[in-house]
Amino acid sequence: MPKIRCKCDNVIWLGEIPSPHQWLIISDVEYDKFEGQIDPEILYSKMEIVVRCNVCDRLHVFWDGFDKPQTIYIKEAD
């Protein structure tokens, strides 16, 4: 997936590796399953992909990989 269009109409380019817009998250439960030397590829496979819009700060979370629609979260007003 080289790019996604945010709800604010900003195009977020993901072709750059590593991408400054892509974040990885893992739950405490999944993380605690790892011990000793960790294979980075296996750890990566357990992480969820989050893309942050650099214009509006919306978070596009791909809970089920890039094949499925993302869930979009928006920052609450102060």
**What do the pLDDT scores average to?**
92
Distance between the termini: 33 Å
Helix content: 10-25%
Classify the secondary structure makeup into a structural class: alpha+beta
Write the element-wise H/E pattern from the N-terminal end onward: EEEHHEEE
As a percent range, the share of strand residues is: 25-35%
* Biggest sheet character: 4 strands, antiparallel
| Rg calculated over all Cα atoms | 14 Å
Silhouette: globular
Task: Give the tally of β-strands.
Answer: 6
Number of helices: 2
Order the strands across the largest sheet as they lie in space: 3-4-5-6
Give start-end ranges of low-pLDDT stretches: none
Oligomeric state of the chains in view: single chain
Could you write a compact summary of the structure shown?
The chain is an alpha+beta fold and 78 residues long.
What would you say this structure looks like, in words?
The protein has helices at 28-32, 40-45, and strands at residues 3-5, 11-13, 22-25, 48-52, 59-62, 71-73. The chain is globular and about 45 Å long. Strands 3-4-5-6 form a four-stranded antiparallel sheet, with no helix packed on it. The protein has a two-stranded antiparallel ribbon with strand order 1-2. It starts with a strand and ends in a 5-residue tail after the last strand. The mean pLDDT is 92. The protein is of the alpha+beta class and 78 residues long.
